[in-house]
Structure formats: C-alpha cells, structure tokens
Design a protein that fits this description.
The chain is of the alpha/beta class. It has ten helices and 14 strands. Strands 3-2-1-4-7-6-8 form a seven-stranded mixed sheet, sandwiched between helices. A four-stranded mixed sheet has the order 11-10-13-14, covered by helices on one side. A three-stranded mixed sheet has the order 5-12-9. α2 links the parallel β2 and β3. α6 packs across α7, α6 crosses α9 and α8 packs across α9. The radius of gyration is 19 Å and the shape is globular.
C-alpha cells in the first residue's frame, strides 16, 4: 500500500516544518512513505530548500465555491484543501495528515496511523486523557467552532461526543470521509456564522452525524501540549506522558498559540528546566542532559 504524508506551512511556520521533516526522514526507508508539502506562502528560497527534501511541493488553490470571507486568505487554504487530498495527490492508498507544528518522536506513531487506517474511514486521536485539563475555556472554544460551522443546535449535540483533533489523522483513499467532508464543508461555507474557518469541526461532524468508522488512537499518538505538558525521561531521553506509567509520546503536537515560547518541563526526578517544545530544542537539551 502506498502511503503519503501531507502537511502545510507558510514562511512563519517554516522552522516548524523543518522540524517535522527532520523527524520523518529517519523513518522513510523503513516505512516507504512519500511526503507532500502544501505551500501556503513559503519564501522562494525556503520552497527550493523544502523541494529538495520532499516528493512534491504544491501551491493549493481554493476548490470550493468562491467565498467572500475565506477564499482569498492563504491561511485558510490548508483547511479548505484537506477534503481534496486525493485530488491534489492521486494514486496513494493512505493519506496521513500531520500539522506542521507536530513532530514524530517514535516510529510507532507512524506505524500505528498506517495500520489503523487500512479498514476504516479515518484513524484519529480523540482529545481524551486523564492528564488533560479540559475546562470551561476549552469547551467554549469547541462550542464556538461547532456553532460557526453548523449552528447552535448541532453544536450542543456534538459537544456530547469526544472531539477528534485533526492535526494528526490517517484516511484511506476509499474512505467515505472524503465525500461527506467535502459536502458538509460546502454546506457549512454556504451559511458560515463567524470569522474563523474550522475544518476540524466539520470532520468531527462528519464522523458523528454520518456514522463513519473510526479507529481511535491513544493520546500519545497526537499529544496536545497545551492541555498537559509532557514530562522528560532523562534515562530514555524522550518526552513522556505526565502520569504513570510515563509512556513515551509518539507524536508531539505543539498546540500552544505562541509556539516559539519556552515552557517549563519537569523530569521524572522532579528537576525543572526551560525549553521550547520543538524537536530541535528537545534534541539539543537531550544532548546537553546526557553530558
């Protein structure tokens, strides 16, 4: 089966994109996947650099009906392009989407996505873990995205279900999700009520309302750092879940708004230190910590 990993970035996200690509490089030989980057506004020099590292760089265009609020804003292209990945990159069996602010810490994260997507409509990670701090702020954030896309009534209904973060997901080529995602996205655009385009809300609506088949992967396969900072295992030199049995994270997702900011992490002995959550920063700390 042919697997392709797709991500997207503009120039502001270029350092995060490089980190993600670095984390994928060592696994390409073993897993045999292709990599495609959606160019949302990379500088020409950056695009040339990225083209030398991946199979294709594509500048997507708006593929829905014209929309006065969203179709001319490049930052919305990655969201509007995701329902059309098989059209943008035909010929693959499994499409893995990784946000540019993710990076792969353990190969099992990629292996799990590939295996989990083979016989279902989507493999994804629900925002569920005993360490996550989901409070009123997070629920209000979620409700507003559902409301903008689907209206107040369906927002209340969908809030009762686990929410899948769409930053890490795998979808097979023959999945019913592609059709329902596209149809629900266009219907939502026709009546959008707000200033923020959330395809993630529409994916979740399609999963619930169209009763798609889902493989639910563990939180470690898409660890949302803003909901719970990981711990550091100095012995294995890996970021781990912040609760026993301190299992290693598979895919780290820097979901903070200010992604470059240093965070205070703690190791298993209780020692605290400051670091960014990028792969480069963690790797640098790991080397220093091992000396």
């Amino acid at each position: 089966m042919s697997t392709v990993i797709v991500t997207a970035a503009d120039e502001g996200y270029a350092p995060l994109l490089r980190d993600l690509l670095d984390s994928l490089t060592e696994h390409r030989g073993a897993l045999g996947f292709s990599i495609i980057v959606l160019d949302l506004g990379l500088a020409p020099s950056t695009r040339g650099e990225i083209e030398s590292r991946v199979d294709r760089v594509i500048a997507p265009s708006w593929m829905f009906k014209p929309h006065a609020k969203f179709d001319s804003n490049p930052k919305y292209l990655s969201r509007a392009a995701r329902p059309f990945l098989p059209d943008l990159a035909p010929g693959h069996s499994i499409y893995i989407w990784l946000d540019a602010d993710t990076w792969v810490q353990q190969r099992q994260g990629l292996e799990g996505l590939i295996d989990a997507a083979r016989d279902v409509d989507i493999a994804a990670v629900p925002t569920v873990h005993r360490a996550y701090a989901l409070g009123a702020k997070e629920m209000s954030w979620l409700h507003e995205r559902y409301r903008m896309a689907l209206g107040a009534g369906q927002a209340i209904e969908l809030l009762q279900q686990p929410y899948f973060n769409a930053g890490v997901m795998a979808i097979r080529a023959g999945s019913q999700l592609w059709r329902t995602f596209t149809e629900r996205f266009q219907a939502a655009l026709d009546r959008w009520q707000g200033d923020f385009l959330s395809d993630q809300a529409i994916i979740n609506a399609a999963i619930v309302l169209d009763r798609l088949t889902v493989n639910r992967l563990p939180a470690a396969a898409n660890w949302l750092c803003h909901l719970a900072l990981p711990l550091w295992n100095a012995e294995t030199r890996l970021l781990v879940e912040p609760v026993p049995a301190f299992d290693p994270l598979l895919v780290v997702h820097n979901t903070f708004n200010k992604k470059e900011r240093e965070r205070v992490l703690t190791d298993l002995s209780g020692r605290r230190f400051r670091t960014q959550l990028t792969r480069t920063a963690i790797a640098s700390f790991a080397c220093h910590d091992n000396q």
